[in-house]
Amino acid sequence: MSSAKPSIRLLATGGTIAGAQNASGGYAAAVMSGDELLAAVPQLANLAQITAEQVAHIGSQDMDESLWLKLAARAQMALDDPAVAGVVVTHGTDTMEETAYFLNLALRTDKPVVLVGAMRPATAISPDGPMNLFNAVAVAAEPAAKNRGVLVVANDEIHFAREVAKTNTTQLGTFKSPNRGLAGRVNRGRIHFFGPTVRAHTMASEFAPLAVAELPRVEIVHAFAGLRRDLIDAAVRLGARGIVIAGVGAGNLSSAALRGCAEAAHAGVAVVRSSLTGGGVVERNIEINDDELGLIVAEELNPQKARVLLMLGLTRTSDPAQLQRFFQIY
Ligand code: GLU
């Protein structure tokens, strides 16, 4: 009776969604394969024809730049296949926002790309992974999900890659989009999209399709009361091409550390000021004279996403003005 279901490619990387709990309440991430995750949700057959590929077997704290490049290449290959309607990536939640934002700028596609994870292991009491996976596949198979950039689905919510952040260590509602809100909601596969994102992604990304062999080294230095400049100097000595300051408040840092940043910028290292507050905009030239010191501001990107964009930006230029432009577009 029904015509063929859309074809979805699942790229499995591990994470708690594929985790197994032990008797004492601890658990190991990335124990189950993508095929095993699919087999646990037979209702998926009502949504799509799904083929799984195991790209990695890790807790997402072990995600790194080389794995991002591999994942992007596998996803781009699947998306370039005219038979594939969309891609779902299973991923640990710890670094999911970074991977999502990276793919959001690295993939050239208008097809849905959805990252999904879980807070409870697959063998826990009341695991959240199966419903999250069902909802993620529903979104990936949905034509109206096209051209919204990379999405994250969890806890019945759909988030834009640029906006989503993990905000709680254990709770199911850990993902929030504090600055610009949700992309939509999804209830047992029924999808309600809100407005599109205004920031550029995928088809409009000048980094996509990403064709680099490696990404430049960019470090993050976390600010606090009494921050010294030593770690900034160390990053420069270690050959970092960029430094992201996870600043207090609106991207602030101590005078001593700021001097270190200005010297780093003068020496050709790209220095981006972001905020560790979890919300709001870091604007240029408010308390700090960015123009004079040669600094860049992250606008709304949190430190770890600012690092992703800075790495991509540095594959094109090391000019602070050009790099600043990227933070205004993406
Ligand atoms: N640290 C694990 C990971 O990110 C567990 C977090 C999770 O997946 O929920 O893969």
Mean pLDDT across every amino acid position: 96
Order of helices and strands: EEEHEHEHEHEEEEEEEHEHEHEHH
Unreliable sequence segments: none
CATH superfamily of the largest domain: L-asparaginase, N-terminal domain
Q: Characterize the overall form.
A: globular
| Rg from Cα | 20 Å
- Biggest sheet strand line-up: 4-1-5-6-7-8-11-12
Give an overview of the whole structure.
This protein starts with 6 loop residues before the first strand and ends with a helix. The protein is globular. It has helices at 34-39, 65-79, 96-106, 129-140, 230-237, 255-266, 290-293, 303-314, 320-329; strands at 7-14, 20-21, 27-28, 49-58, 86-90, 113-116, 151-154, 157-160, 165-166, 175-176, 184-187, 190-193, 218-222, 242-247, 270-275, 296-297. 27% of the residues lie in helices and 21% in strands. It is α/β, with parallel strands linked by helices and 330 residues long. It folds into two domains: 7-204, L-asparaginase, N-terminal domain (Rossmann fold); 218-329, Rossmann fold (3-Layer(aba) Sandwich), CATH 3.40.50.40. α3 runs parallel beside α8 (303-314) and α8 (303-314) packs across α9. A hairpin with a 2-residue loop joins β7 (151-154) and β8 (157-160). The strands form four sheets. Strands 4-1-5-6-7-8-11-12 form an eight-stranded mixed β-sheet, with helices on both faces. Strands 13-14-15-16 form a four-stranded parallel β-sheet, with helices on both faces. The longest helix has 15 residues, at 65-79. The structure holds glutamic acid. The site of glutamic acid (GLU) has 11 residues, from loops.
